[in-house]
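Title: [Solved] K+-H+ exchange-like protein 3D structure

Original question kept below for reference.
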Amino acid sequence: MRAKLIVFPIRARNWCFTRSIDHSLPPPPSSSASSFKELWNNINNAEKSFNAKAELCTDYVADKMNNGWVTLEKAPDGSLKKKIHGLGLWLLSRVKPSEIFLKSISKEVTGVEIVYPSSLNAQLVRRRLRHIAMRGTTVHRKFFYGSVSLIPLSSALSILPLPNVAFFWILYRSYSHWRALQGSEKLFQLVSNSSNSSITFTDKKGTEHSDSQSESLSSDKPHCILSPSEELEKLVHQEDGNDGLSRDTITEICKLYNLNTKDVIKYEKSIF
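Solution (posted by the thread starter after getting help):
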């Protein structure tokens, strides 16, 4: 599956990195176990690798958290569960957009098409994506281990006669950092020049030019396609001043490329 990534400067040195939402793709099939007994049996399968077992545990926890979140969302207004849901929305709004972007690079992604304003240098765009992937690997690995270490401490709060919000939030952050870490490693692999990754540049006429010395005639489709866009260039540079893009322009770009407007706006104040 090829993911379309949209890159453009949004304010001064702040660039937006986001993935286009493809509504035509069906949701990936769930591989999570329906019960803890089934999960335990799958983990004890000697044929599965450590990474495969870790994925099973992660999918199981994610499935349970999603079910719990849906329950909170459907709670009646004014109830404690609804207030907890509101608190969760507030906490989620403070998650950095780069983390959301890296999480969108799932294990099903086998290639990326990078769309950017035609005035930007293609090598600069790719270097900045590599920088985000490299730093994401370091940052989210550190925070993943930190969040996991807090799970036993937060679970002790379950003795209180209140919902253990801290435990579920730390559990979610552990899962989120794990997914961002996996996305960082995947993105770095796709946008780097190596024997396992080929880079293709698309010029204004739509002609593709390979940039991988190890690419053979029998190789698969390129892992990374850099596509300069005149249309995105016009939208980004239709405004003067140093205050960045207006909300109307951001909304127009989001509609054009099927982006999440709230996530894009976060980049106004976030460099990484």
